[in-house]
Amino acid sequence: QAQELCFYRTSCTSKKVGNNKRGGGSVITRASKRCKIELRKSLRFVGRYEFEGSKAMLIDEEKSLKVFEALDFGYNNKQKERINCKDGLISHVDEEKEAQRVLLRCFSSAEHYEHEVAIVVRNGSLDTKFVETCCHFSVHEFEAYSASNTPQQFVISVEQPKMKLLRVVQSAHVGLTLKSERRDELTVDDTNIDFMQHYLVKVRIILRLIGQCLCHIHERGIIHGAVNLTSCGSFVGKKWKLTDLVGARSTNSHFLPDRMGIYPPPESVEISGNTNEENFDQYLNLNAPAQDKNILMTDHFFVSSLPAHVSIDIWSFGVLIYETLVRESFRSLFDQGNQKSQKLLSSSTYDAKDDNQTFMARLYHWNEEDLREVVDRLMEDGFGPLCADLVSHCLCTSPNDRPSSMEEVLDHPFFNECETF
Predict the structure, then answer these.
(1) pLDDT given for residue 343 in this prediction
(2) CA triplet 405, 411, 413: central angle to 5 degrees?
(3) Which of 55, 242, 310, 321 has the fewest C-beta atoms lying within 10 Å of its C-beta?
(4) Cβ atoms of residues 172 and 327 within 8 Å
(5) pLDDT tens, position by position, 49-74
(6) How far apart are CA 232 and CA 209, in angstroms?
(7) Helix, strand or coil for residue 223?
């Protein structure tokens, strides 16, 4: 009833009062500031979550899943901890504190919910100083009939960062572009060198913190599997944490292909279906007519499952360092000509896979020559031999040739010596 009242649209004729118009529109749009607050409170999901936007940001019908952006008013900033929720009943909600942004993963199927909850419970041993906080509960769709057999909603609430590492990288790219435009030149001048030196110091600290987060989850037998610029975020108190832990796996379990993202390690790429080696190699010929490549466009390029091992996260960390420093997508290493769409980093870089077959083909044949391209690009951008050595070791073709642990990565001189730009 409260929801119907808030969005009830009046039909009276608008009347202009001073600079304001009254009449028409929904009740909530015409309410005073205080009334809007109270009306929104009455609409909070289980008395705690205030939805943002008018619809789900993601719908997965296969999993009976809808994902919503929301504000969590059950987050107690004073105690710095989540308030437990059980069967949709919330207690001790401090209305005076700032709400925490969250994603609500709402399932109508208990099966898929229980699968993800098992992962959340398993991750419960992880320290929230290093990873996002999760809360899970179930609630009847119609609370007044909660004792009956009415449909249930199964919910996982996932803490969201105030800022992702992607934004830091994008800001640096914009800053350098503006400086160059003001001087009407494309070369790096003294001002840009100072800017990049400051940026290098800043991101080296952030990368080390992310590395420590990976050390923490690895010590507890968990492999992330999809570390990138969007899964590293800054939270309250400027704490950098790992996010997107729902898809993580225990050591020696297996990742499914959809976890690997668009920068999977070479060992996760395979030739499958009707594709043979000759056709696969033909795809590497970027000048070949499109019709000659059609056979490859629909083929599956991932192994059916990949054992969860620290080498996967170490590969991803190498890509993360490269993209953070170069400020372009890792895939742009293999762009031909001026394919700017692949160079600039954005959140969509990590979502789309439809234009990724060429890169998968290159990963399948990843070798020393490709590592040389990585090293040359880092050196050309002025990042020095320590940086190039670390990244190239993380991106070795064979998992056995990469550093054996994140502790070994963090012990590298790149993090311990002040290499200048």
Answers:
(1) 56
(2) 135
(3) 55
(4) yes
(5) 888 887 899 999 988 999 999 998 87
(6) 10
(7) strand
Distance set, CA 63 to CA 123, 271, 342 (Å): 21, 28, 31
Contact 161, 233 (CB under 8 A): yes
The number of helix segments (H) and strand segments (E) in the chain equals 15, 17
Rounded Cα distance, 260 and 39, in Å: 43
Strands (E), 108-151: 134-140
Structure tokens at 49: 């979550």
More confident residue, 340 or 199: 199
Q: Which stretch of DSSP H or E encloses residue 67?
A: strand 65-72
Query: Which 3 state secondary structure label does DSSP give 421?
Result: coil
- Cα 117 to Cα 137: distance, rounded to the nearest angstrom: 9
C-alpha to C-alpha distances, 408 to 97, 214, 374, nearest whole angstrom: 41, 12, 21
Residue type, 334: F
The torsion angles phi and psi of 82, rounded to 5 degrees, stand at: -75, 145
pLDDT at 269 over 80: yes
CA dist 296 → 272, 350, 387 (Å): 10, 21, 36
CB 398 within 8 A of CB 371: no
What residues does 381 pair with on adjacent strands?
Answer: none
Q: Write the CA distances from 290 to 257, 276, 285, integer angstroms.
A: 26, 18, 10
Distance CA 181, CA 187 (A): 11
Q: How does DSSP assign 141-153, residue by residue?
A: SSGGGTTTT--EE
Q: What is the mean pLDDT of residues 159-187?
A: 70
Of 131, 138, 200, the C-alpha closest to 169 is 200
- The residue length of the chain stands at 421
C-alpha 40: how far from chain center: 29
What is the C-alpha separation between 269 and 105, in angstroms, rounded?
30
Q: Are 246 and 156 in contact (CB under 8 A)?
A: yes
The closest alpha carbon to 250, from 300, 170, 309, belongs to: 309
Instruction: Answer whether 241's CB lies under 8 Å from 129's CB.
Output: yes
Distance CA 226, CA 263 (A): 9
Instruction: Count CB neighbours of 189 within 10 A.
Output: 12
| Residue of 11, 32, 86 whose CA lies nearest to 40 | 32
- The one-letter code for the residue type at 193 is I
- Residue 86, SS3 per DSSP: strand
